[in-house]
Design brief:
The chain has 2 domains: about 1-140 and about 275-380 and about 445-470, Rossmann fold (3-Layer(aba) Sandwich), CATH 3.40.50; about 155-265, no CATH class. Helix content is about 40%, strand content about 15%. It has helices at about 1-20, 40-55, 65, 90-95, 120-130, 140-145, 155-165, 175-180, 190-210, 250-270, 285-290, 290-305, 315-320, 345-355, 355-365, 415-425, 460-465, and strands at about 30-35, 70-75, 110-120, 130-140, 275-280, 330-335, 370-375, 380-385, 390-400, 405, 440. The longest helix is centred in the middle third of the chain and has 23 residues, at about 250-270.
């Protein structure tokens, strides 16, 4: 283990040295990580960002676009031959076709390279001429992101936390019963191990459907080619320090350690730890709709995940000896188009408060952070209706059924603590308000030449994430 970590450290140092030394003589490369839990809108964000960087009329908040510094943008073959290409064209066709629909969510790691031909302004532009900046966008499943919180936890700590969280959840009733009926000290019988792991996996799927966020291990939800393997056949167990060798309890601990070693750490090393800029997408409205337990679960899950970031400035020596650091992190509350613009500031403030612990840590380490309410693809329009003699701000859109609907989800509080405090204190439901959500389909679009898909503050997000490097 020590040798492996040392080798990883040497490899990072060599890679950092190579990047730092060759950077002045090659095109600039920005690695943008797009993360977030399931249903936060990662695929839509990447697709709309690329489309709007290629057709920039709606990107007035990105200075390099509004001043004309970006001369052209074009897709390149991705640089890593071992990673699938992000299916940009398919996703864009789904979002902007004659009968638009939401594209499928992320199911594996993928990348996309967008090259921007830049023309510096002033005397520098005359001397230097045009240059190329490559934007490498890295996409990976939100389910896998959850596993980053396991890196520094042993089996006992993870089990204790997982079992504590599920002790009052009805979704976990079958698993709790199966756990009580299983002799954990008996010699391992694979069918018994598979039954217990299957019950825990079923719980994770039910918990995610109920709005909970911390559903680890994430690969249980989206196993890919690991489905059915021993490395995905374990579950959290109560403390058993004296479990005999070859028992189910000891084998589950071994498999958990193998999962971290063979699945989580390689993912972190090969993809997550090489990011320059990071956007964290969070479906806060969905969590609010699910209730206080889901909000608190989201807060804890995101705090755990974000401890895996390496925030800070990428100075020359730090790249060589410490590996790359995430210089800027955007915390983006998605689906802002489900709210009237009069409530966007409240959504932004709730996002900042929800992720306060992680934001403070990143700020202290020297990274720049920002919270923002966005919609990567705007699916609604705004309206004001008369409701029982009182004007009411609503958004209108098309439901999956094809019917048009108006939504007023409820008034978000001006003070985020009115939501976060009851959630931290274990409230089962909101006492003084209800918050509703609807699933709107993408609106049919008629785009003019030079226009990307309509959005809310995607240009502001891009300016914060990469504007300084353009």
């Amino acid at each position: 283990m020590v040798v492996g970590r040392l080798a990883d450290g040497i490899a990072r140092s060599v890679s950092g040295l190579t990047d730092a030394v060759t950077a002045p003589f090659s095109d600039k490369v920005i690695r943008l990580g797009v993360t977030g839990l399931s249903r936060a809108g990662k695929t839509v964000f990447i697709t709309s960002l690329v489309a709007n960087l290629m057709d920039r009329d709606r990107m007035t908040g990105l200075r390099a676009a509004s001043t004309g510094a970006i001369r052209t943008a074009y897709l390149q073959p991705q640089p890593d031959d071992t990673i699938p290409r992000f299916a940009y064209e398919d996703h864009l066709a789904a979002m902007t076709g004659a009968q638009p629909y939401w594209p499928e969510g992320t199911r594996a790691v993928s990348e996309l390279r967008l090259s921007l031909r830049m023309q510096p302004s002033g005397l520098l532009g005359t001397i230097q001429g045009a240059r190329t900046v490559h934007l490498d966008i890295v996409d990976y499943p939100g389910e896998w992101l959850l596993d980053l919180s396991l890196i520094d936890r042993d089996f006992a700590a993870w089990s204790e936390d997982a079992l504590k969280r599920i002790e009052d959840r009805p979704e976990a009733e079958d698993f709790r019963r199966a756990l009580a009926e299983t002799d954990l000290t008996a010699r391992l019988e694979e069918p018994a191990a598979q039954r217990l792991a299957a019950q825990y996996t079923a719980y994770l799927h039910a918990a995610r459907a109920a709005g909970y966020s911390d559903c680890t291990p994430g690969r249980f939800l989206l196993p890919g080619d690991l489905a059915g393997s021993p490395v995905l056949t374990f579950a959290p167990l109560p403390p058993m320090p004296n479990a005999p060798r070859n028992s189910l309890a000891r084998e589950f601990q071994r498999r958990y350690d193998s999962y971290k070693r063979n699945v989580v750490r390689p993912f972190f090393r090969d993809h997550f730890a090489r990011i320059d800029r990071q956007v964290v997408l969070v479906d806060i409205l969905g969590a609010i709709h699910a209730g206080p337990p889901a909000v608190e679960d989201l807060r804890r899950a995101m705090t755990d995940i974000l401890t895996a970031f390496r925030p800070g400035r990428n100075a020359f020596l730090s790249q060589i000896f410490a590996g790359r650091r995430v210089e800027r992190i955007l915390f983006a509350a998605t689906k802002a188009d489900h709210l009237h613009h009069s409530q966007h500031q409240q959504l932004t403030d709730i996002a900042a408060a929800l992720l306060r612990d992680a934001k403070d840590r990143a700020d202290f380490a020297g990274a720049k952070t920002k919270a923002l309410a966005i919609a990567a693809l705007r699916a609604t329009t705004e309206d004001r209706i008369d409701h029982q003699g009182t004007p009411l701000d609503v958004v209108r859109g098309t439901l999956a059924s094809g019917k048009r609907a108006a939504l007023h989800p409820g008034e978000l509080p001006e003070d985020p603590s009115h939501l976060l405090d009851p959630a931290r204190q274990g409230a089962g439901k909101w006492l003084d308000a209800g918050y509703e959500v609807m699933t709107f389909s993408p609106a049919a679009l008629s785009l003019k030449p030079g226009e990307g898909p309509p959005h809310i503050r995607l240009d502001t997000a891009a300016e914060f994430l990469i504007g300084d490097l353009l």
